[in-house]
Amino acid sequence: MNAGEVEPGTVRPGGRTARVRESVLRAAGDALVEQGFDRLDLADVARRAEVGKTTVYRRWSTTAGLVADLLSDMAEQSVPRTDTGSLDEDLKANARLVVRTLTDARQGPLFAAVIAAATCDARTAEALHRFYQVRVAEWAGCVDAAVERGELPAGTDAHEVIRAVSAPLYYRLLASGDPLDESVADRAAETAAVAARAGVYVN
C-alpha cells in the first residue's frame, strides 16, 4: 500500500453509519466463529447484519478489509490498562484480562479464528499485528512506571515484558490446549516480573 492509502474498512464512520458498522462487525465476528476465515463471505455478513450487500461491499470491499476493521474495533473496545502502583499487581491484572478474553465463550473462538486467518492472509496478519501493537503499547506503561519507581532496572524493554506475560497464555490457547485460569495467569505474570527484575529484558 502506498503512503496515504488506507486499508479498506479502516476509516472510522461517524453519525448513524456507526450503527451499521457495529451491526456488520458483530455479524462478521459471528461468522468467523462459526465458519472460519476461509468461508467468510461479505454477502453472508450483510444478510446476518440485515444491511444491504452494496453497503458492505462499498465500505469494506474485501473480507480482509472487514477483518482489519473488526480488529481495530476490538482494540478500541479493549479495557484500559490497570495502574495499581505495583508491577506485580499490574502484570497480574494484564494476565487475568488476557485469560478472561481467551476463555470467553465468544471472544476466545474469535481470536483463534482471526489468528488462524492471519497465517494465510497477509492483510489480516498486518491487522492482527497492529491490534497487538496497540494493546502491548497500552500495557507497557505499567512497566515504564515500574522503572521510574526503581522496581526494575533502567533500560528494561517494557514491550518485551508485556509480551512475556501473554505468550504462555496464547500458547495454551493455540498449541497445548492446557487449561487457562487465574492461577495460570498469575504464574505467567509472576514469571515475567521475576525475569524483568533480574534484568532479562534490559536492552
Automatic annotation (TrEMBL):
* Name under which the protein is recorded: TetR/AcrR family transcriptional regulator
Question: Which taxonomic lineage does the organism of this UniProt entry have?
Answer: Bacteria, Bacillati, Actinomycetota, Actinomycetes, Kitasatosporales
Q: Does the keyword Transcription apply?
A: yes
Q: Which residues bind DNA?
A: 41-60
Q: Which UniProt keywords apply?
A: DNA-binding, Transcription, Transcription regulation
Species the sequence originates in: Streptomyces argenteolus
Q: Which domain of life is it from?
A: Bacteria
| Keyword Amino-acid biosynthesis assigned | no
**Domain HTH tetR-type residues, every copy:** 18-78
